[in-house]
Amino acid sequence: MAKAPQTLSAPALVVKHKGLLTFALMLATVMQVLDTTIANVALPHMAASLNAAQNEITWILTSYIVASAIATPLTGWFSDRIGQKQLFIVSVIGFTAASLLCGIATSLGEMVLFRIVQGICGAFIAPLAQTIMLNINPRERMGQAMAVYGAGIMIGPIIGPTLGGWLTESFNWRWVFLVNLPVGILAVFMLFTQMPKIDIKIRPFDFFGFGMLAVAVGALQLMLDRGAEVGWFEAMETWVYLGLIIAGLWVFVVHCMTAEHPFVDLKMFKDLNFVMGLLFIFLIGITLFSGLALLPPLLQNLMGYPVIYTGVVMAPRGVATMLSMVVVGRLVGKFDSRILVLFGTGLMAYSLYMMTGFTLGMDSTLIVWSGAIQGFGMGFVFVPLTTLAFATIENKYRTDATSIFSLVRNMGQGVGISLVTAVLASMIQVNHAELGARLTATSGAVMNLVPSLLTGAPQIVAQINGLVSQQAAMLSYLDDFQLMMWVSLATVPVILLLRGNKARPASNAPKKSAEELALERAHAMAE
């Protein structure tokens, strides 16, 4: 007896070729996310070419991050005001054009300006892609849709440093930006032909609310980026940033609670799953991307790996992430998503525990396996979490909610990188002092292994000090890995506060005629 076809709920947006549109959305998303890390390894080459000091060249990264963070919350308003299709296409065109300008920039000032434009345009791409992916898929297939979206979000930062290093060494640092041109052009063409127009909504713009949020977000990004350089709270600059963060957020929340047309409708935060999803993605964002920031300098500076081999050793992490995205996309509708998130969090915590066993004399086996396990766990965390966070949110809040979700994820990433960098710098000093204190005249290790140190010869002292510094740095990396392991485990209570995936009537979905529903079911069966 033939099995009756599964009846799917109607998606919020019906399109002709969902596969082609999905490909176009992910093409643009990967291009944008890739640019958050691809330029990192090329900074020394840029500094020499643009005649910039080492402390000045970091503004190439800071300008992009700050501009993107400030512009991300604008996604919902611009999407309503000029339409999702128009905003998406304009954003991709602007991002591609800014990439070209970055590739031909001749001074640091030009580069910073073009990176600001690139950050503003790129800020809209990921939230819009996520919104459209949620809208063109029925609720029963949101897990699969988020698996595809998650692959783009997670793979970009992983392969960014490797691709950037290869382009810089094989060609020129300018190709780090010029590589976006063919991708952007293809994405624009496909979006123009495949993406349907969506009705424009007249929505007043809350200048004051946006201004307060922009002040808070911009100050937070500047504090995270500049903190280590100025000595954190030893500098007045950091306290100024902290004051702006607190004041901006306080005024923003009070204003949104009392304004007739607030910049962000706080009613969306009544959804417990969405709020818990934001808290979880912030905490897990600290660990997801911090490892990516720590591993390249560890492998290259301490273990002596070339840039290309570093990318090869880290590649299994990306392969495992893509594999887990495929697996978890099929499991989301069959198992409680909280169980999947717990499983993924456990894998990530275990991989970080494995990384606390790194040594300077080991081969790459443990690096590969710990990275693969961590990458596999990432898929089990991101996909079901995103599905849970947006499972019960009303359709009218979806665009604003995805922009807030992207903003909070980026905030977690920024906090994580700043945290592990600060811990690394602090623990290097502590570990160096502890190791150095053991090298005394009565130490058995000194007397048996390096008795020449007792002569006080400058060359011998410098050599031993270099070895002590190397070991102190390695121990500090292990301290960071242990810290991230505990942060990962600290997210378990948040997972338990999430509500499991339950069927929910599609009350906000537009009513379809019998003919339209029959066509959609036939299309689902064909897929």
Automatic annotation (TrEMBL):
Q: Its GO CC terms?
A: plasma membrane
Q: Where does this polypeptide localize?
A: Cell membrane
Q: Where is the Major facilitator superfamily (MFS) profile domain?
A: 21-460
Which InterPro entries does this chain map to? EmrB-like, MFS, MFS_dom, MFS_trans_sf
Going by the entry's taxonomy, the superkingdom of the source organism is recorded as Bacteria
Which terms are listed as keywords in the entry? Cell membrane, Membrane, Transmembrane, Transmembrane helix, Transport
* GO molecular-function term, one example from the UniProt record: transmembrane transporter activity
The residues that cross the membrane are 20-45, 57-75, 87-106, 112-134, 146-167, 173-193, 205-224, 239-260, 272-295, 307-328, 340-360, 366-390, 411-430, 481-498
Record's keyword annotation contains Nucleotide-binding: no
- What Pfam families does the annotation carry? MFS_1 (PF07690)
Q: Which CDD domains match?
A: MFS_LmrB_MDR_like
Topology versus the membrane: Multi-pass membrane protein
Spell out the PANTHER family in the cross-references: MAJOR FACILITATOR SUPERFAMILY MULTIDRUG TRANSPORTER MFSC
Tell me its family. Belongs to the major facilitator superfamily. EmrB family.
Entry protein name: DHA2 family efflux MFS transporter permease subunit
Question: In which organism is this protein found?
Answer: Devosia nanyangense
